Amino acid sequence: MSEDREDGSVGEGAAGPEGTAGEEQVRYDQARYVENGQYEPLLSEKDLTRVEIGGADATDETGDDAESPLPDDLTRGSLELPELSEPELARHYTRLSQMIYGIDSGPYPLGSCTMKYNPKFTEDVAALPTAAVHPDRSERSIQGTLELLYRLQDYLGRIGGMDAVTLQPPAGAAGEFVGIRVAAAYHEHNGEGHRDEVIVPESAHGTNFASAALGGYDVVALPSDDDGRVDLEALEAALSENTAALMLTNPNTLGLFERDIEEIAAMVHDVGGLLYYDGANLNALLGRARPGDMGFDVMHYNVHKTFATPHGGGGPGAGPVGVVEDLAPFLPAPRVREGGTSKSGDPTYELFDPEQTIGKVHGYQGNWLVLVKAFAYIARLGDEGLADASAKAVLNANYLASRIEYDVPYEPFHHEFVASAGDQDAADVAKRMLDYGVHPPTTKWPEIVPEALMTEPTEVEGEDTLDRLAAAFNAVAAEDDATLEAAPDRTTARRIDQTSAARSPRLSWQALEEE
Ligand SMILES: *Cc1c(COP(=O)(O)O)cnc(C)c1O
């Protein structure tokens, strides 16, 4: 990482991801943004007085040697900080926030990811002083915390049709891994430890394959039928006495409901396997249908997709796991249950370890504040509000699909649909949509649709916004390749070298100057 990065590029030189040297990449055009007054330097780039604080040589106000009583190897030495006034600092971050696109800027129709409404009141609830409870306090002194966790376990169990829930896993993918480990412990306990295969549809999310493999299983990929659903004959052929589980999401990644789900469940159960539900698409079913009623034995909930907590950006999430009764003894420890009654007659709550627990999978009960937000969201919407959300999610996806010119090969879909960009490159379409002021859909996945544009408008958007999204899709559909390849043209950062940005990220300004 030694190139001159005056051009503001991210990563290693001008060559594209796969050594496409010579093919000039369209890059973040710093000069243009300085010219337009849109460029915002780092705080440490601003030409400002720096204050030195701390350090072995520092002196205090009296001029005395203020040397730290700590051993030298535990002290930082000197620390340079830019000296800025409060408005300068506020402007810096406000300007940065104006250079990016987020859920507060416009629609965010990322299929499968469900970038939905995250009402601000859930942030207020999470910021309450009473939410800042130290996890190591005694059970007696955190009864409110335990009650919230207990009630969230209960809400999620009722929403999914599951008998027991753990709140610990910190993301959907982590929930998958826990679910698979719980399934493995169950089989092992029943003397069925020889089962070594997990079946995953080809169209599934990458984390399903990864979780099964990390859980120690051989992954058997299942092809889809011509309608885009589970191919029952292929499933029959894949199932055997070695099957530990089949992982499915329903509606599937094409937005299609697996109509044969009861038959699928019976087939899996007949060979002694378990049915795993990937909860990423639960937004389509909320308050209307429950995985437990369809025959699923174990599921995760992506609370940041289905309920609240801004999704993405690498922040913490939560992926609670629900199971049917037979699997409950294997859930991670501890869980929360009702313990007894207080003097005033209210129920009390306590932590307990399920008898055959697979152990602890996260500190305390998981990402507590994320769970608080999910709880607040569910409690505010209630049964009717949740059912209303799924109805509108499905209506919005169908309305949007009816307004766009790209072909949508698989129907009838529910909360999301997968259009095909046809002769255009889906990634270029996505970049170009940014120029029309909207966020693009998920692209190039699932692969079953060529040049996939996987779109999920969510229940949040109104007709005007959906029309604006459709107009952006349709404007891009009419454009030529040269225009698409040069996009985005109107954003602060243009087409960056994403592979290099991911493989050799610049994480420290200081370190780079020193290199
Ligand atoms: C998002 C997603 C996951 C993984 O969930 P995370 O919470 O992001 O870890 C799994 N399956 C599907 C279908 C998804 O869309």
- In percent terms, what proportion of residues is strand? 5-15%
User: What is the annotated CATH architecture of the largest domain?
Assistant: 3-Layer(aba) Sandwich
Domain module tally: 3
- Taking the alpha carbons of the first and last residues, their distance comes to 8 Å
- Write down the CATH topology of the largest domain: Aspartate Aminotransferase, domain 2
Instruction: State the strand order across the main sheet.
Output: 3-9-8-7-6-4-5
**Largest sheet composition:** 7 strands, mixed
Q: Give the overall pLDDT as a whole number.
A: 87
The rough form would be described as globular
Tally of contiguous helical segments? 16
- CATH level 1 name of the largest domain: Alpha Beta
| Structure class | alpha/beta
H/E element sequence: HEEHHHEHEHEHEHEHEHEEEHEHEEHHHH
- The poorly predicted ranges are 1-28, 511-515
Helical residue percent band:
25-40%
GO molecular function: glycine binding; glycine dehydrogenase (decarboxylating) activity; pyridoxal phosphate binding
Domain Glycine dehydrogenase C-terminal: 389-484
Domain Aminotransferase class V: 184-312
Biased composition (Acidic residues): 58-67
What does this entry look like structurally?
This protein is of the alpha/beta class and 515 residues long. It folds into 3 domains: 21-103, no CATH class; 120-132 and 139-380, 3-Layer(aba) Sandwich (Aspartate Aminotransferase, domain 2); 381-503, Aspartate Aminotransferase, domain 1, CATH 3.90.1150.10. 34% of the residues lie in helices and 12% in strands. It contains 16 helices and 14 strands. The chain has helices at residues 30-35, 86-99, 120-126, 143-160, 172-189, 206-214, 232-238, 261-270, 291-294, 303-306, 368-403, 426-435, 463-477, 481-486, 498-503, 509-514, and strands at 50-53, 79-82, 164-166, 197-201, 218-222, 243-248, 274-278, 298-300, 321-323, 335-341, 347-352, 417-420, 442-443, 452-455. The strands form 4 sheets. The protein has a 7-stranded mixed sheet, sandwiched between helices. Helix 3 packs antiparallel against helix 11 (368-403), helix 4 packs parallel to helix 11 (368-403) and helix 5 (172-189) packs across helix 6 (206-214). The longest helix is centred in the last third of the chain and has 36 residues, at 368-403. It starts with 29 loop residues before the first helix and ends with a helix. Bound molecules: pyridoxal-5'-phosphate. Pyridoxal-5'-phosphate binds at residues 112-113, 171-173, 205, 207, 249, 253, 278, 280, 302, 317, 319. Residues 184-312 form the Aminotransferase class V domain. It catalyses: N(6)-[(R)-lipoyl]-L-lysyl-[glycine-cleavage complex H protein] + glycine + H(+) = N(6)-[(R)-S(8)-aminomethyldihydrolipoyl]-L-lysyl-[glycine-cleavage complex H protein] + CO2. It holds the Pfam family Aminotran_5.
